[in-house]
Amino acid sequence: MDLTKVPELSGSQLPATKKALDALGIAVSDLGASAAMHETGDARVKALDEGRRFIDLAHAMGVKYVRVFGDRIPPGEPRDAVLARVVEGFQQLSSHAARAGVTVLMESHGDFTHSSDIEWIRAHVGSDAFALLWDAHHTFVEGHEQPADTWRTLGRWIRHTHLKDSKAAGSDRRYVLTGTGEVPVKTQVEVLARAGYKGYYCFEWEKKWHPEIEEPEVAFPHYARVMTDYLKQAGVKPLSL
């Protein structure tokens, strides 16, 4: 999971990997760090170190964005104190990213799925090297926001997206093939397209954490077909498949 420790993306092997990706026509949209800015103590030191390492790797690869989490408001901690700590962490990483020509993206995830909270953090970080990754599933399912409302508050700073569908399953949810669940993915695409969004429409399929869902060999081709149709209906010309 830690890309900075993958041999093919390290040291003398990195140039060959970049050349191979270019030859295949593969563009890397962003790098996904698992660092969480709510952490304290030794965990915070490790999270900030991970964020910096991912930023350095993005710089070396010529990748524009690194995803980082705000993540959690730990039980029993004052909310204001956690928010201030999250802001301070993102300020540190954004300062490092600005020097590297990289932008840090906060994902709408965990306890940060409401637009008002995310916008408050963004405004207080106050860096041009800090922007947002819209996980449109989480703002709808957990934040209970309609796509147009989320975009109205955050759209100006959204640089990347995560799209996925799900259905209620008892007290939890099950991820399902795109367009077969309760998440308005088509509407989310329409909102992005109408606003002139130029980033990737990224499919996230969490088989590692949810082994019961369909195989990637089923889910990815299905997403490609459905998304091609959604994009065409929204007036966006998708890349050739």
Fill in the keyword field for this structure.
241 residues; six-stranded parallel sheet; two-stranded antiparallel ribbon; 8 helices
Ranges where pLDDT stays below 50 over 5 or more residues in a row are none
Helix segment tally? 8
End-to-end CA span: 28 Å
Largest sheet: 6 strands, parallel
Q: What kind of assembly state do the chains in view correspond to? A: single chain
Silhouette? globular
Instruction: Evaluate the radius of gyration.
Output: 18 Å
Order of helices and strands: HEHEHEHEHHEEEHEH
Structural class: alpha/beta
Strand content: 15-25%
How is the largest sheet built, in terms of strand order? 1-2-3-4-5-8
Summarize the amount of helix as a percent range: 40-55%
Annotation, overall tally of beta strands: 8
Q: What is the average of the pLDDT values?
A: 96
Break the fold down into its secondary structure elements and pairings.
Elements: H1 14-24, E1 31-36, H2 41-61, E2 65-69, H3 79-100, E3 103-107, H4 115-125, E4 130-135, H5 136-141, H6 147-154, E5 158-163, E6 165-169, E7 172-176, H7 185-194, E8 201-203, H8 216-233
